[in-house]
């Protein structure tokens, strides 16, 4: 005869952990059988943050090591008489005072840089717009035309400088030869103080015109054709369509190119170093080339650092002014 027994819940053996912990047991200090606290699993959000930092960490370290640290060192050096070899001596702002009051080359190189910048910006963007309008035509083989004008952009500046140096050679250069065919004696080009800076500007325009051409071509192809069709129906001429439709809708690209060309032109160095070394006299000596001469030829790293910070202030001020004037002439549709 069976007797009913009460249901007894089995008790875990003494010293062992329960087989199923209630929720939140780990957070309340639960331990493994060996007495070691269990590892806490990362939440999905924490894993995403950790993965992101693992990817960008090397880049952030590189930016800090090779940009922020040199900039900070340059800022300190601009207040010293450091020559790159001995210990620097603090001089306060005397480098800046000397630069503005006692250095005549500062204003000469600044004037040459402004002339170079304005000339290269106007010519490069104007020619780039003309080439973009031509490259936007539905002509067979137009891709070859686009590639031909963009190739100088990716060409080494040293190779460009040597080729154009030969083209400008007095007497047996290509330009003097062509002028001689019509009975005209060419100038000395790079050896003439009146022609040297213009000659270098033309080289910079030739090498850089492909970049604005590509940017403006992308802007042209983004303009809806329906706008031109509506203008034709209304009897608008080609000039009216360009002035009223094309040019306003290209102002974002023109604004971008103006800022980038200004920053790039103000830091021109390679083509000057290869073709003229700042000569004849100081006719083509631009600001960055003078900074290079002061630092590495004269060993005045502190003074050169002060020149670099003045350049940074000029570029930053002009860029800020351009950004402030953006709303007055840039049309985003």
Polypeptide structure, described:
The protein is built from 15 helices and no strands. The protein has 333 residues and is mainly α. The termini are far apart. The longest helix is centred in the first third of the chain and has 34 residues. Helix 1 packs across helix 14 and helix 3 runs antiparallel to helix 11. It is extended.
| Secondary-structure class | mainly alpha
Distance between termini?
Answer: 96 Å
How many extended strands?
0
Average pLDDT score: 87
Rounded radius of gyration (Å): 33 Å
Helix content: 55-70%
Q: Which band does the percent of strand residues land in?
A: under 5%
Shape: extended
Uncertain residue segments: 1-8, 14-20, 22-27
Q: Count every helix, treating DSSP H or I runs of 4 or more residues as helices.
A: 15
SSE string, helices as H and strands as E:
HHHHHHHHHHHHHHH
Biggest sheet architecture: none
